[in-house]
Design a protein that fits this description.
The complex is a heterodimer of chains A (712) and B (123). By secondary structure, chain A is an alpha+beta fold. Chain A has five domains: 77 residues, no CATH class; 110 residues, no CATH class; 91 residues, no CATH class; 102 residues; 261 residues, no CATH class. Helix content of chain A is 51%, strand content 13%. Chain A has 24 helices and 21 strands. Chain A is elongated. The N and C termini of chain A lie far apart (86 Å). The C terminus of chain A is likely disordered. Chain B has 123 residues and is mostly helical. Chain B has one domain: Arc Repressor Mutant, subunit A, CATH 1.10.10. In chain B, a hairpin with a 7-residue loop joins β1 and β2. Chain B is globular and about 55 Å long. Chain B starts with a helix and ends in a 15-residue tail after the last helix. The mean pLDDT of chain B is 81. Classes of the chains: A alpha+beta (712), B mainly alpha (123). At the A-B interface, α2, α3, α4 and α5 of A face α1 and α3 of B.
Amino acid sequence: MKKVININFQGRVIPIEETAYEILKRYIDSLRQFFANEEGKDEIINDIESRIGELFDEQLKKGAPCITDADVETVIASIGRPEDFEADDAEYQGTKASANKTYASEAGPQQAYVRHERFYRDENNKLIGGVCAGLASYFGIDKLVVRILFVIFTFAFAFGIVAYLILWVAIPSTASEKIGAYRKRLFRDPENKLIGGVCGGLASYFGVNVWIPRVLFLIPFLSFVTNWNHWGVFNFPNFINLSFSPGATLLYIILWLIIPEAVSTSDKLEMKGEKIDLNSIKNTIQKDMEGFGERAKDFGKEVGERASKIGSEIGQRGKQMGSDAGHAVRRSGRTFGDVIALLFKIFAYFILAVILLAIVVTLFGLGIAATGLLPFKPYIIDNGWQSILLWGTYIFFIWIPVIGIITWIVRKITRIRSNSNVMRFGFAAMWILGWICFIGLLASLRNDFSYHNNPVENNITLSNASIDKMEVKFNNSDKYYFDNNFFHFEPFAYVDEDTVSINNIHVRILKSGNDSFKVKVLKLAYGTTKLVAEQRADNINFNISQTDSVLNFDRGIPVTKTDKFRNQSVYVTIYVPVGKRIYIDDNIGWGNDFHIDLGNDVDDWNWRRNNEGYDWSNSVEYIMTNDGLKPTHPTENDDNNDDNNSDDQPASPAPPEKPGKADSSKYHYQPPSNNSSTDTIKKEASINNSSNIKSRVNITDIASSFFERLSL
Amino acid sequence: MDIQNTQSQMRKGVLEFCILSIIRQGEVYPSDIVDKMKGANLHILEGTLYPLLTRLKNAGYLTYRWVESNSGPPRKYFLMTDAGLQFYGELERTWKELADAVQTLTSTNGNIEVPEEIPNNNQ
């Protein structure tokens, strides 16, 4: 059942099936594109249209109720498709073919290869889709060699067939090249632009309404705006949103730079050219498959002929043996060399593509990571100059090279060459500005970190210092409301509305001189002057409370936007008497601290680096001996210890250790009762009191070492 | 390099000449040209013919006339101009020379079996 519509076609009323009308319309469009550059194209199209109308009329006069698909196909066949004109059209053939082809006569006695400058599927020599023939003519080798290679790859790795299909769809055929405007290209649409015409061009490339790409570009912006106020809520989906809103701008800018503007009429036609969708791909394949049987037969015949020729040749050669043998070797050697060259070229291109992709991804990652750190800006950076310098660094130092390199790569790939000097100098200038901002920022930060307060340890009075065992726990505060947060920016474990909580809490264990526990706390902070540093250190709000044998530590050091982060840290030293036990809960996190190292003139306080304290791991019970700190359970396996000890609930004094206790219960995972977020990650992170703190890779260290070199 | 390509190249060269020779005999409708050429076993697509006619017309060798048709709108008939006649004369001379040359060359080649002229795959 088909719908019939009436169309007014060159002064005739034609009843035509809707599907037939679609075919007709596409056909006329293809003609229009074909004759796009022809003088008097409208006249030609009009003439052809009226001829088609006449043919339809005849069909209707014969008594047909309406024009069907078949009728249209018949008419098209008699008028001819643009591809068919190619062979007939002297002028096109003359100009375009000579531009594309050079006839190479070197390649053997009877074979003259048609060599293309670009890689096309070879329409004239195709067996299935012309991929092999196209490859062969591109690399100037025998198409038989390429076909054999493909067959080998297909049978050996099932890879050839996939490669073939991809190339079939992806590579334009020589037919489409000759027609020129037949395939769609991506342009910026100057007639349909708000900013750069990128969306307009995208819309006509994908055949959708202009507002669709526009809205797609705007959506991240909307969420950007709505999320602005919730930057404090630093979880992963938000992170994506945040980083992709600059991403959309960036994408737009890159597309703007890369995509050429549709200036000439033929550009505009190409821009709106054939619709690239599954249907057109299907059509290509269908068309290509027509006459496959015939061509296969031909190919078989060709192979047979060749084989017999080679056979007779071998026979002949056999008779004269000597003289021509060298020639034969040379020939086969060259073919083999060609194959190697082809494989090598493919391999090289592949590697190159991977490297370029990696660079682009890395740069994007860098930029996005920088964007992700922006929520922490107010906690570190002063308002005013420092903030301006930070934005300058962010935009010009980080994103400009990202945009620049990506643009450069894409332009290299697409071989666009236009006013690239302007762009090069523009990018260079902006990047230099970025360097200036970056250096200025480092200098001003360094100034802020130039002094620290006098380290003074304060004793914490313990109510019953002579207990047998001390436990250290870290409080779970109400503030820390994201428990199931899978993205965790470790150093700033928690971001609250206006406060970040920093894990800069270091615990050292030392031997006590007498038989009672002793706890000392030291608060440290940096500042532009000693006085500021002192004040800041005093401001550190870190509490230790005691209930029975349990010491409760605050989980982190709160830092507000007004306070700013200036390496505030807390050092807790626990002196354990010989023969007594200590147990530190694993809630401390992973022992990450956050520390900005700028400049060596600050005598980085020796506590950070000293190795005086004993090594200890969290969730392991230790006993102090004369030789140092020893685990109470001789550890076979850290995991076991972990589980074992989580049995011992903090409030109840643990029973004395039973060496070799290996009950089945320790293989059961028992979630520690009131532990929070980090407990889900049951990872044993050994905190060697101070030494491993330093071993963390710290970007700021790298930056500062660079800066030092620069300033000295 | 295949045989079809060479054949179509050969045919292309004489296409304009053949079309002009048909039009010279009197004003014609394009589909009549196709029919006549088909009768002489020389195939051409209408899609190729129309641009060619337009090009010749724009070059001033042809002109056209609207002729009322008893079915539907008027039809475009092509006829030759004086310039066209002159142009045709030159083509004819070139063709004669070429034909003679080819004749001379091929006849000395001995009687190689000349494959039957296969029409191009455009129908």
